[in-house]
Amino acid sequence: MKKQLKIVVLAKQVPDTRNVGKDAMTPEGTVNRAALPAIFNPEDLNALEMALSLKDRIEGATVRILTMGPQRAADIIRDAMFRGADGGYLLSGREFAGSDTLATSYALSCALRKIGPDVIIAGRQAIDGDTAQVGPQVAEKLGLPQVTYAEEIVEIKDSSLVIKRRLSCGTEVVECPVPAVVTVNASAPECRPRNARRVMKFKCALAASEIAAAPDSETARRAAEKPYLQIVEFAAADVDPDPQQLGLTGSPTKVKKIENVVFQAKEAKRLTAADEEINSLMVELIASHTLG
Amino acid sequence: MNNIFVYIEIEEGKVADVSLELLTKGRELASTLGVSLDAVVLGEGLAGIEKELAKYGADTVWVADDKTFAPFRTLPHTAVLCGLIEQEKPQIVLFGATCIGRDFAPRVSSALHSGLTADCTQLVIGDHKDPKSGKEYTDLLYQIRPAFGGNIIATIVNPDCRPQMATVREGVMRKEYAAQPGKGEVKAIGWQKFVKDSDLAVRIVERQIEERKIDIKGAGIIVAGGYGMGSKENFRLVHELADVLGGEVGASRAAVDAGFTEHARQVGQTGVTVRPKLYIACGISGQIQHTAGMDQSSMVISINSDPEAPINKIADYAITGDVNDIIPKMIKYYKQNSK
């Protein structure tokens, strides 16, 4: 494999839909995003680990994060830098609002054309949508081959990677030429933890808009002085897109209706843990041949 | 009139169940729209496959039969399906939300610049009016799916781009012979003109097929545990009750994420869909993400310490109390009474 291999990890900051508490829905029944903590999408962390382990094995390789989102999404770029990434790119702008998976993939592919990576690694899917579409759609937009459900890079060859995939029916090992897009399963190794020294070194890393928001702060001054603390920020115009393919306009799927989850009312028979109640329930179930 | 395509997946030489389920749904949609139903099969050694597909309502069976297509590889399948879609211009294309469907359907949508909705739980034909432009559309495919961790149900439409594409998980739709079998007329796909040399760049080095060890789909009784079980140790109670009742063990996503049990047991939108005659939900709150996979169970018993848990709304029996207290009692009284 060539030296100075450029690895880019596609990552997303997502609301933590796995830990939805009582206040996650507003009284009106819409999702209360403010009540959900924003986290590094779990499988994107597996992807980051795969990228970092590749970097460990190839001299001069670099790992950078690309994320699309609001300014606060820079948090996951910093998090990745604490864990071993060299830096990152934040793709941010109103033009991207309302993007479905296809418009998202298009925007990311425009940014990736600017960056010119050799290997693109992404999590299989994000927990807020569970679609698993963006990785393959980016690959198609860039005309690259893809390896989905990757668990391990088994071997690094001159111009290809040998990758083990986890399928529902077993495993498959494939050899894929680079450049390529790899999407990583949750069954791949977990991401290494944050490194204390790297946290000290990169805690002042900022995106351009974050520096501009508080130019006189100490962190902003430090970030402005040291290039390695600067998170590259792309606005829509920086990646030369066709505006027709961005955001809501560029999204072929439209949300017609959102319903809150309202369960069909059905009267449940209420029981307590009392012995006689459990006993009569089991008798009833056996009598009706539901059991046994 | 534009047809409906169903991509037929071949699993170790057999048609995958999910494809037959999609044909059943496709037949219903095709009848509503007054169009015909086409099955598309890419693989090797496919002679005679149309007979089974016709029983499920396929009028036309498009076949590309060559070693290029087995085992499945993303790029040749994408190239052929895109080529055939451009040639035949179907209005709807359905895929199983399997390792294969979820791998290459997004590529097809990206190449054709048309929308794809993942993991639909319902597909219905209906009309649509664009709220901004006021433009009216008739006979669109409503693609209905839970979203945002299952807290909402979204109806998605693709008003302007064709085809309208959706994936559906195995077990979500019913599989039934069509009332009137389709003609099952075989048409060979002229695939050679679609596949480029660069589509063959990825090489399969090795495949290891593992028997699916855990399969809870066909179980008549499922005892499922959630995050409310508290720990991996306590989760053993779920196994004990399932063993005693002759059932299988299921789990909610939260229980799987917490490491209480393996993913193969996960019931719900991102797991399997089940329809047992009895479903016992232990310490499961009942997020739609979970109930989407079990709400067609004939009978539901919930055990939860929270009397207001959403699961109780779909339960036939709601037992309020501690799972660690109630499950051993159920085991005890079942044993006492079943003799």
Describe what this molecule looks like in 3D.
The complex is a heterodimer of chains A (292) and B (339). Chain A is an alpha/beta fold. Chain A is 29% helix and 27% strand. Chain A has a single domain (6-245), classed as Rossmann fold (3-Layer(aba) Sandwich). Chain A is built from eight helices and 14 strands. In chain A, a hairpin with a 3-residue loop joins strand 7 (146-156) and strand 8. In chain A, helix 2 crosses helix 5 and helix 3 packs across helix 4 (134-142). Chain A starts with 5 loop residues before the first strand and ends in a 5-residue tail after the last helix. Chain B has two domains: 4-200, Rossmann fold (3-Layer(aba) Sandwich), CATH 3.40.50.620; 221-338, TPP-binding domain (Rossmann fold, 3-Layer(aba) Sandwich), CATH 3.40.50.1220. Chain B has helices spanning 17-33, 49-55, 74-88, 101-112, 232-245, 253-257, 288-291, 323-338, and strands spanning 4-8, 10-11, 14-15, 37-43, 60-65, 92-96, 116-120, 122-129, 136-147, 152-157, 164-168, 185-188, 203-209, 221-225, 248-251, 278-282, 299-304, 317-320. In chain B, a hairpin with a 6-residue loop joins strand 8 (122-129) and strand 9. The interface between A and B is large, with 77 and 94 residues.
